[in-house]
């Protein structure tokens, strides 16, 4: 299994364990994450959680392209429906209301935002970078951009979603724009997140979970309305699956996308 869970003193650490794939998720991983969050709902001993990636190179790089392009995900013919296995990998999608923190080392891109957008707050090391490659590959950034629009200023989300692989957001810039709440030295994100989670786990769980639920209630109506439009936008705007792996190297190199700019 590629999802490792460790519970100590009320805090669960959920680790994506595919460092050789930059912690990209295949379909089994997606199902296991769903099962993990649902199991926490029934476990009173778990009062807070931290989600992180294995190794220093990446938190998560989204869906494994072998699963997406290799035919494992079959899309319905209707533009009003979309088959997206990552829609259910986050804690809120599974009605889990314990606080969940994200500890980010290295790259966090694309489908990683399904997890990051459902965490209460993010802690990142100083070498972490955030970017969204969808448009570069001829794909619509819908669910990812909607999730990030709940956490970042509109212009910052628009720039990240539209610029694709040509630009990456540094941990420092993510902190300045409110996406990240704390920047640590390299290798320190998980320790800092666990320290915060231990504090949350020590408080009365009813009060903590009620506060989490109240925070999400403040924005869930707008989020739900936006998410409802995503399937048809994706169906209309995505290239056919067999073409989504194309990098458009000639066009990208002319635009200077060969060496992503970090800001």
UniProtKB/TrEMBL annotation:
InterPro entries: ClpP/crotonase-like_dom_sf, Enoyl-CoA_hydra/iso
Spans traversing the lipid bilayer: none
Protein name according to UniProt: Enoyl-CoA hydratase/isomerase family protein
Organism: Streptomyces albiaxialis
